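Reopening this one. Same input as before:
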Amino acid sequence: MDHGWHIGAGLEQAMHKNFLIVKGMTLMGEGGLKFKRFAFKNTTQVEPLPRGMSNLLGTSYQVTMLFVDVAPKLKFMKETRSLPGDCH
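Same output, byte for byte:
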């Protein structure tokens, strides 16, 4: 059995600044897409398979998943960063 692998990407986007009329609070939206291959196997011999699957020579088996996620986020005090030498 071969080792698995995965690949993915994500995106974060500002949706609304000063959310709920709170200065410095931003509503963010985050989305992600990931593809994972947990296992892969090539067979060259007859193996017992679950009922309903044919029993063929030279068959490949894969265990994979596709993840899609969407999530809201709140960021606080985004615009209140102070620089060195600033007085408040």
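So the earlier flakiness isn't reproducible anymore. For the record, The beta strands are 5-16, 26-42, 60-75.
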